[in-house]
């Protein structure tokens, strides 16, 4: 049997394989920046707002964007808008954190005991469809004109969507992960903290976002309803007071402040939390 001939291969350069890595153009690099795309969209909305306001030429209906920004800056300089915003944010933090705590207790009981599951499903079906604003008369009777009433309606807004999302996330955790946790000797609260919460965190985070949005809307609506009666309040009271004075640019300035706070929470707080958890863990792309 003859030996096989030696086969020699000449090394090839990158040019022999065509384009391996294409350098992006300046436009493509800029377009890949998410924050820049969002800023462009916001600028476009502001331009449309300004053009429509000038075309309408009626500040009692829709003031221009420039007039709204002027009123916003005036409210910031005087300190009134900052004070009202901080008042609303403080109440929001208390109500939101209370709702998160109660939702955590209910879902942990539901995932660890059958009775807890039955209780959560029953009360959620009863109270989740009930609008928080419908509870305002009861809140006024039980807690009076003050922070207690605001916190009560906000807890109702946060509790049920967060509990539903968290419980659904817990139930979606694969049996394999549960068995892994039990093989390591985990059960009860230890299993929930070390296995179920990390595995269900995308659903929990979605529930937190929904609960935050509901709490923010409920707070402003509640302040609009009885912030006047208590003689104090946050952004809702600021908007109501400006409306009574027919200062519509200030009304829009208050609305713009609410939007800015919402964008800040969504794109800074929740985005950072998402990047450091579910995206870092490879649970989302």
Structure description:
The protein is an all-alpha fold and 285 residues long. The chain has a domain at 80-276: MetI-like (MetI-like fold, Orthogonal Bundle). The chain has twelve helices and no strands. It has helices spanning 26-31, 34-56, 65-78, 80-112, 114-127, 136-143, 147-171, 175-183, 189-199, 201-230, 235-244, 248-276. The longest helix has 33 residues, at 80-112.
List keywords for this structure.
285 residues, MetI-like fold, flat, single chain, mainly alpha
Report the radius of gyration as a whole number of Å.
27 Å
What do the pLDDT scores average to? Answer: 83
**Would you tell me the structural class of the helices and strands?**
mainly alpha
Please tally the helical runs, counting DSSP H or I stretches of 4 or more residues: 12
Oligomer: single chain
Q: What is the CATH topology descriptor of the domain at 80-276?
A: MetI-like fold
List the helices and strands and how they pair.
Layout: H1 26-31, H2 34-56, H3 65-78, H4 80-112, H5 114-127, H6 136-143, H7 147-171, H8 175-183, H9 189-199, H10 201-230, H11 235-244, H12 248-276
Structure in a nutshell:
By secondary structure, the chain is mostly helical. It is 74% helix and 0% strand. The protein has a domain at 80-276: MetI-like fold, CATH 1.10.3720.10.
